[in-house]
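Suppose you are handed only two things: the residues of a chain and a line of SMILES describing LL5AMS7Z. What would the bound structure be? This form records exactly that question and the answer produced for it, so the two can be stored side by side and reused later without any lookup.

QUESTION INPUTS
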Amino acid sequence: MAADQGPAPSLRPGVPPGAAPAAPVVTVAGPRVARAEEVLTPEAVAFVVGLHRAFEGRRQELLTRRKSRRAEIAAAGTLDFLPETAAVRAGDWKVAEAPRALQDRRVEITGPTDRKMVINALNSGAKIWLADFEDATSPTWENVVSGQVNLIDAYLGRIDFSTPAGKAYALKPAAELATVVVRPRGWHLDENHLLVDGVPVAGALFDFGLYFFHNAARLLARGAEDPNSGPYFYLPKTESHLEARLWNEVFTHAQAAVGIPHGTIRATVLIETITAAFEMDEILYELRDHAAGLNAGRWDYLFSIVKNFRDAGDHYILPDRNSVGMTSPFMAAYARLLVQTCHKRGAHAIGGMAAFIPSRRDAEVNAVAFEKVKTDKDREAANGFDGSWVAHPDLVPVARASFDAVLGDRPNQKENPGSPEAVTAAQLLDIAGAGGTCTEAGLHNAVQVGIRYIEAWLRGLGAVGIFNMMEDAATAEISRSQIWQWIHNGVVLSDTGEKATAELVRRLVAGELAALRAELGAEAYAGGRWAEAAELFEQVSLAEEFADFLTLPALPLLG
Ligand SMILES: CC(=O)SCCNC(=O)CCNC(=O)[C@H](O)C(C)(C)COP(=O)(O)OP(=O)(O)OC[C@H]1O[C@@H](n2cnc3c(N)ncnc32)[C@H](O)[C@@H]1OP(=O)(O)O
Ligand SMILES: O=CC(=O)O
Ligand SMILES: [Mg+2]
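ANSWER OUTPUT
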């Protein structure tokens, strides 16, 4: 405002012009969670409120922008690299050097932040533990607050746990523990239990802000670079470099606010949307002082392709989930581009999740899981990735063997430029080129997985084993969005010759509920949330208007 304009008129009746801005009204409205007061201290809440006040406006703008971008994609029926950022792609620049704790990331275990899992993950022998508030967590107030309590206890080396049967859990010596990398929720989810002037804060800023605030205080006490830890993050579901820019602004603000050096925070960005795949360079560039790498989040990536091209015709129809994999040409192109981009920019390239989970009770299931995961990790290591994810502690040695065989004593292979084959937009979008079939068996599986997962999520479980596969929010999104896509494109199922229709899906849902009642028994069935899960599943897979995320209509049903 120009100096001669005088003070702005007061918009608050009775408050003189130029008076200090009103203090925000902050409401914490969740059910009681044990030890919440250790996390939700007045200072930590004020820090999150400060983030909200600084960045909520921009978050909303970017969420609106997602909608217009999707409308553009629907109109064009295709996608390409951005002309306006060609100079960034062509430029000669690198991201900041990784801190010591993030140099060797050959095996990363992922999982939710409940107490037992925290201890098991940290003790697993993995280099990194991705502490997940996203795909693997149902964001009940209990889960998001107690997760923060557990992270503080883990950082202080005082986390322990025992089961009602007396099995005791404790941390191994500090030098043997995984480094913690926290994955906050994506930009789309609100935290409805913390309101500022009646507006919910972003789940992303709640998870990031609380972990950063508590972690940064300890970091300051320990000295500039802790060899085993720091404020390290995974950033999920990013759709554009502008969203990465917002994270960069949040990091810059957060570091300045608590007085730790710019660049202390390190973030690995999941490339798990089709739009982000076209902006890998740009995302690293925006975050270059804070970037630690990119990750190939294959499950949300498939979901994002279906979501964005759901009504773009036959070329984009995703066949049965188990007939597409990382060797499908469009997925191989995505992995290739990720390794090429990361290594050109000095960043780590981290592989994704093979969803097969082992069983300690069934040797055959175990053998299949080990073999499938080994094949997947061998391929990633050979293709230039610096490390990869596993979902279960028993898979840590499997993935480590794959990466040891390629890396040897080197912490990573960032000097490996990856495949010399350039990646084109057409290759990234060649879904039809994957072949694969759409079957009623695939449709049935999608119904089963979708209902079972949503029911677990409503009870506060964000990751579950279903039919020996790891299922989480990302894989459930594939199930329901694929059904929407098949119905709206009139797909004919190759094994029955029948068309995929809403009526067929409703029949399969009813059949699945009856099967579950028989499998569980009437009492256990009645104790679950099956009817709500089925209703929500039908809504997100059959409603004409496609829900951007299934967790959005599901959120109000959580405690
Ligand atoms: C698309 C994506 O975003 S992938 C990343 C997000 N998804 C995830 O992180 C999933 C992580 N994995 C898991 O949550 C689990 O492995 C599940 C739910 C799939 C299966 O868990 P369970 O049914 O408990 O498996 P199982 O009984 O074989 O577990 C054996 C032991 O390993 C532990 N365990 C299993 N997975 C993990 C894990 N990821 N982290 C830590 N501990 C684990 C179990 O707690 C159990 O411990 P216990 O023997 O002390 O009781
Ligand atoms: O977050 C990972 C994914 O595959 O989705
Ligand atoms: Mg994901």
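WHAT STANDS OUT: The first helix runs from residue 36 to 39. The chain has a mean pLDDT of 94.
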